[in-house]
Write a structure and sequence with these properties.
Length: 148
């Protein structure tokens, strides 16, 4: 008898705990009276790239990603300088080129700085010369940077 009473007490405590934590069954009329209905929206989801970011990039002189044809011309121009510029990673070359447009925008009258930053940005395992950096900068400006 003592075991039964202990077991019943444990079950009652567990049931009370579940109810207090919201884990037990509840009366729908109580829930609907205290919980507002969930609203659904037919508004479409926001685009993957928010416009403010694109606008901020544009203000910094960073162009949008090029279309496939422009990217192909840009990559071909870089490969003509040295296959090590792209090194099988065209997306990285495009990203670096877009950032270089931002450098041109930030330092419009300092060509030496543009070339130096371009050399640093594109160099990695392969170190490019100043002449190669000049050529890379020309390819970037020709194929990616906005025309003013």
């Amino acid at each position: 008898m003592k075991r039964t009473a202990t077991a019943l007490t444990a079950v009652a405590i567990a049931a009370a705990s579940l109810t207090a934590c919201g884990g037990g069954k509840s009366d729908d009329s109580k829930t609907s009276a205290t919980t507002p209905p969930v609203a659904t929206s037919s508004v479409p989801a926001a685009p993957a790239t928010p416009k403010p970011l694109a606008s901020a990039e544009a203000k910094m002189g960073i162009p949008p990603k090029p279309d496939a044809a422009a990217q192909a011309k840009y990559i071909a121009a870089l490969d003509a300088i040295s296959p090590a510029v792209v090194n099988g990673k065209p997306d990285r070359a495009v990203s670096r080129g877009r950032d270089t447009c931002g450098t041109v925008h930030s330092f419009p009258t300092d060509h030496t700085k543009q070339v130096d930053i371009t050399r640093q940005r594109f160099s990695g395992a392969t170190q490019f010369t100043t002449t190669q950096a000049e050529q890379i900068l020309t390819a970037v400006q020709t194929h990616l940077c906005p025309k003013h």
